[in-house]
Amino acid sequence: MSALFRQLAAASALALVAGSASAGAQQYEPMAASVRAALHAAVSDAAAPTLPIPDAGERARWLAEMSRRLQKRIPDEAYRIELLTSIHYEATRAGLDPQLVLGLIQVESAFRKYAISSAGARGYMQVMPFWIKVIGREDDNLFHMRTNLRYGCTILRHYLDIERGDLFRALGRYNGSLGKPQYPNLVRAAWENHWSWNPQQLAAAMADAQTPTPR
What we know:
Helix content is 57%, strand content 0%. It has 215 residues and is an all-alpha fold. The longest helix has 18 residues, at 145-162.
């Protein structure tokens, strides 16, 4: 995890202040100034996204396979590659599994860039508009691809830090249904059934480990 997100994790420990008000998908919770500052820093980095997989062959395999799985939903190949690269970059940057984020996007918006929920959540990761005010970047456009992914991944990381790594509870917070199993189960099912990925090097190592040693 980057130093920026370690700072966010430390600040998030101060985030639970009494008296939260429902705001649809994610819920607004008053938070310490240090948490706001850490969130603001987390969404402000403008580095160009790259696919952060060190091995070139593995990068190509991941992109080809995820592109194949996403093709029916997003026929435009160039845009599909840009989206997948951005998802992997933003998820990895936030210390999240990119496959988890793909599952979450499938459940939240079915990969529709301009999706709007009945509660007003927006874009791929269905980010509630109050976040742009909480974080202090009121000119941000939540329908912009990278902005939406950056906010969504940063928010999920924030909730994971609050919940001390408990993904079930963090997903509940993200959806505004803390403690209820339906949403976390949907995300996990999408993650495991549609977006699971074992790197080839890891798969080969596991196969070698399971091969009986000759006597």
